[in-house]
Structures are given as structure tokens and as C-alpha cells.
Amino acid sequence: MGVSDMIIAAVILAGAAYILYRSIWKKKGHCCGCSGGSCDKK
Amino acid sequence: MSVQASNKRQEEVGESQRGVLRPVEKRTITVAVAGNPNAGKSTLINAIAGTKLHVGNWPGVTVEKKEASFDYGGRRIKLVDLPGTYSLSPYTQEEIIARDYLVHERPDLIINVVDATNLERNLYLTVQLMELGIPVVMALNIYDEAEAKGYRIDVQGIEQMLGITVVPTSATRKSGLDELLQSVLATADDPAGHIPQQLNYGEDIEAAAQFMAESLHKSHPSLVDKYPKRWLLLKLMEGDGNLQKEVNIGQEALLDEALHHLKRAHGEDIEAVMADTRYSLASGLTREVLQKPELRKTELTEKIDRVVLNRFLGIPIFLAAMWITFKLTFDLSKPFSDWIGTMISGPFKRWAEALVGFIHAPDWTASLVTDGIISGVGNVLVFVPVIFAMMFFITFLEGSGYMARAAFVMDRAMHAIGLHGKSFIPMLLGFGCNVPAIYATRTLENQRDKTLTALLIPLMSCGARLPVYVVFIGAFFPSHAGTVLWSLYVMGIALAIMMGFIFKRTLFRGEAPMFIMELPPYRMPTFRSLMIHTWEKGKHFLIKAGTYILAFSVIAWFLLNLPWGVEHKKDSYLGQVGQVVAPALKPLGFGQWEAGSSLIAGLVAKEIVVGTMAEIYVKKDEDKKKEKPTFAEDLKEVGISFAKASKDSLANVVSTAGITSISADESAEKAAERNPLREELKKQYTPLGAYAFIVFVLLYIPCVVAIVAMVQELGSWKWFGVTFVYQMALAWGAAFIVYQGGRLLGLGG
Hints:
The structure holds two protein chains of two kinds. By secondary structure, chain A is mainly alpha-helical.
């Protein structure tokens, strides 16, 4: 695995980790459908 | 009954800083929508503003206040949907949310949504809203049903007696909405001319109120500015604990002095006296304005309820309704799931490979896309039709009014675990998604009920677990799909009752409070409303597939391919974790490292169990030398197979033959090509081990989001700890009993 491969892999993993953080932790326990008002907002 | 014009009240309001009522000119008109549970507030807002608030034909759907803004007649109107309440007393979370908003936020006016078929009960709240000194417009909703029942309501009579504008509406048919909005604008333009009349509570109470008003002006002038004065006086006299704490005058001599004479005349319970007066007004007003036809025949709702709520038939009917729901879910959705599976493993995979080759990406990225993302996300997307079909039928049951009956018939079973039937409503919501169900526990009266219900909700099988069930049921029990699925849901409910029973005797001692639940009339939900709410419930599975299932599929691919160049997935990081867990799973009939890795990954979200299994089990087909079809041929195949899926789905639902008739003549090779994961699972598991596996998936903790929701709602990690420990133990124990018990009974191994 070359340096360029490692950089690409790191970028992809960082993107995936960010999506996980944003969709699970940052929403503080609200499911994805909440934006449509289908469940309650605090 | 006695109503008097409150000119004095208007003067008082005019004097107070917060109570000054000016025409609403340029700024947004804020309108609070308040009413009894199930009066149609959310439906009315949806009909007016085109939003998609969650609507169900049962009380307590709106837990928090929600907003919708729109333009009408050149003005901006913001509707605030308050939770349904029967009064403005501070006893439940809904009441506290509604009254805090009305008292502290002071909207420009209130639309009081009144169920025209239940006038007397709804007017009790109306009387309390009128005490707030905020202009009220009454939407006399469900008016079409009242008319159909032969009710004759004197709308002008209500207007004259209460001093408010009354507009007959039907939110489901969208009738009367223009008139309602015009009344809103007219009231906003002249609020002082639309102050409601006030109920006279009788000489004694009014005299005490007058005395208190004068004393308050002298001793606490700031309070008079901060709160609607008449409301403040009445609530203090009622002994409203929350308000007394808030204004900090609960123990003062002022109250004792004002109430001294009252208590001598009426006894200690002034609140009951005032409640009686309000009921008398509501009752008297109803007698004046409502004419009901003589009941010649039992109404349809009552006829159905005689059967559905029968003490012996109630629970069997509930179980039968669930079984039919699951059977129809499978029959309707399976051909579409198969179609998506074929498309993902065929054309979409080929197109993705071609795209990666076209941009000259490194070789490993092709594997990441096909074996990681497409296998992971694709194998979850396969089950989207199942999830939507399930949500459609659950929405139908909600909208028809049957779910409220389900809660009612479960009341006795719930009492056995120290809860009452109202707790079953959040649990039923959990069949869709555990997260909103956990939030819905805030409708329960006390913290004990709320915590206990939230702890039991994860045992309700949410839609995210469906993909796991469906892939295993499709592989091992295709001819009994509906029954096996039904058994899982029933097992979830039965174990929730069992755990509740244990909790009642350990962590949550005490008796359940009385259960009073309104049973709404049966209604046929409109097709549009069914579609909207099915989409609302199901769409977050799509969003999940595009967000954290996608993200975790990528991470899982790396975890299955690191350390870099690893020969076997077993030796990868995820494989090593799976190997650590596997011995603990061996007595359950699925001691493979693959199962361990998938279950660990499933802690993020249950659908990921399937995605990870697909990444692990599905072999690359690079050694197949088959000629690849052209893009045009692929497109043609997509269209033809979709038409066939639609035809099969219709035939499945219409016929009683069930889903086995569809794939009975399918060759093993074709089935493997269409659903490679299912075929791999058949090689790895026995039917008994497979059933134990899905029982484990049913019972172990649902997902990270539900955990965060629980911590948020219960305000402590302690209860998450309790949930984690008991669910893991329960999942292991139940799967053990299923597998080892099955072996002892000679059901395989």
C-alpha cells in the first residue's frame, strides 16, 4: 500500500467517521426522520 | 351556568405590560393550536400548512409542541401545535408543556380545536383557555362526523355565550379551513374586540379572587405583569403546586386570608369546587347548543368494540390482527425485495465496477465499492419494501383507531407488571422505531412509569430488525414466513411483560395508577394520509442507509481488510473481535466468528448486521467468466423484472397461496445469483441456530441512537447500564433456551 493509497484510505475513513459522528452523536439521540417532524424535538 | 362579559378583565389586561393587546400588523401572527387529545390538531395543521406532523387516531400523539409557518392573505402565520390536554392542570407532561407555552410565550391567539362529536368534554378545556385572556377562535372540528351522526350544533349560540368566534371544520376533508384562517386574521387585527367572556365562579370565589387581586397588586406587583391576572388568581386559589413554587408565594398569609372564608364554606378542596363549576358550564352550554337524535340503533363503533374489547376475545383478536399484518407485509413486499436484490447484485454492481474502472481508481477501491458499500448498503436497501409495507399496515391500524383498542385490551396484562394500558402506546410505537417510542414515554404521568416503560421498549421489535429477520426467514422458513415473523413480535411483547413483572418486584415497586383512556371512534384513514405517514415512518430507514449504514459499511470493509493484505477475513480486526465473542455464542447455535462480528457491528444499528454479513459471507464472483450484458440490456432487465415483481406482489396479496408459490419453481442457481447472502447462510446455519440468532437480534440492545435517546430522556446513564445488562442477559438466555431446548426436543441442531 503506497503513500497515496494511505492518504485516500485516511480521507475515506475520516469521512465515514464524520458521517457517523454527525448522524448519531451530534443529533443527540434523535432518529434521522426527525427533521420531518415525525418524532419529537427537544 | 353563568357567563359574564369581562369588560373589567379587558381593562386589567390593557393595564398590564404583558397583556397589552395590539393589532398584529407586520410581524408574524403566532397562533397556538390547543385542544383535547385526538381532536385533530395535528391533522388540522397538516391540512392548513401542508406539514407532516405525526398523526394517529389515538390520544397522546403530540408530545412536544411543534411549529409550522405559512403565508395567508398576505400575512405570515406561525401555528404552534401543542400536545393534546383535557385541562390546564399541571399533572401530566403534556399539560405542563401546553400551559407553560400559553402562559409564558403568550401567543397572539389560540385556535381551540374542539371535537364536535364530544362537545361537552372538549368545552372543559375551552373554559380554561378563555381564562388566559388570549383571544380564542374555536375550530369546531370533525363537524362532518357530528352532522353524519345527526347532531345539530348551534354555532352562533356558542359564539354568543362564550364571546369567541366559532368555525365548523373538517380537517380530514379540508373544509372550513379558509373561514378559520379568515377568522384568525380578523381576530389578530382586533384582539381587544375578541377577548373571551369569563366564567363566573360564584359569589364566594369571585369575592376571594377580588380580595387576592387587590392584595397581589400591593404585595407582588411584578407577578401581575408577568402572568395573566385572572388565571394567576384562580390557579393560586386552586392550590396549583407548580405555580405556587414558581411564584414562591405558596405558604404566605395572603393565600390563607383569601381562602379562609372559602374553605369554611366549601371545605378544603377548592380545586374540586372550581372544577365542578367549569364542568357545570361545559355541561350547561352543551345542553343549550347541542341537539342529538335519539339513539335508535347501536353505533358501528360500539358494535365493533363489543367484539374487539371483549375480555376473552380482545387479546386473541389483537394477536390475529398482528399475524395478518405480518403475513400481508411479507406477501406484498417480498417480490419487490427480491427485485431490488437482483438489481443490486446485478446491474448496479456492474455499473459501479465500470465507474470505478472509468476513473482509474486504485484496485482496492473497487473492492471497497462492491464488497463494502454495495454489499453493505445494498443488502439493507433490499428490505426497504418490507419496512414500508410494515409501516403502511401499522399506520392503517393507528389511523383506524384500532391501536387505542390494543392498548385498552392490554391494560390487564400491563397491570400485572405495574403499568397501565397507556404505557402500551409508546411500546406499540416501538414497532416502528424505538427512538420516538422512548421519547413518547414523556406522555406518562410519573417518572416510575416513564422509566419502566422506556426500559421495556427496546424489547419491541423495531423496523430496523426486519432486514435480519427477513434474510434468515427467507433462507430457512420461506413457507412459514408470516408465522415466524409473528412469533418474534409476540415473543418481544411476552418477554417485555415478563421483564416488567420482574422489575415491578425489584427496581420499581408500587401499583399502577388508574387507567382512563379515550377510545376514539373507528375511522377509515384516507389514502393520502396513509401514504404521508407511511413515508414519514419509513423514510428514516432510507436516510440511515445513506448516512450511518453507508459510513459503517466503509468502516467495516476496512476492519475486514486490515491489517493490510490480510489473507482471510477471519484474521482481520473485525474477524479477531468476532473470534473473541464466538465462544460465548457457541451454546446458542451460532458460534461462528462471522456471527460474532456481525452482532458487534449491529450495535451501531440493527440493519448493519445484514450489511456486515453480506460483506463477510458473499464471495467475489470474479472467476465467473460469464459475458456481461450491455447497459441497454441491463435497463431492459430492470424494467421487465419490476413489472414481474408488481404482478407477483398483487397475486400474493390477492391469493391465499402465499409467498411460497412465487419461488417454488426457481432453480437453486438462480436463487443464489439473486440472493447470494441467503444461500451462504443456508450453508453456515441450521434452521434452529438461525431462529436462535434472530431471537438474539430481537432482544439484544437496539442501536446507539436508542441508547442516546434513553440517556437523554431519563437523564442518566444508570438506566442505560440496567438496559444493557438485562437485554444482553435476556438475549443470551432466550437464544440458549431456543437452541438447546430445540435440540432436546429433536428439532435439529
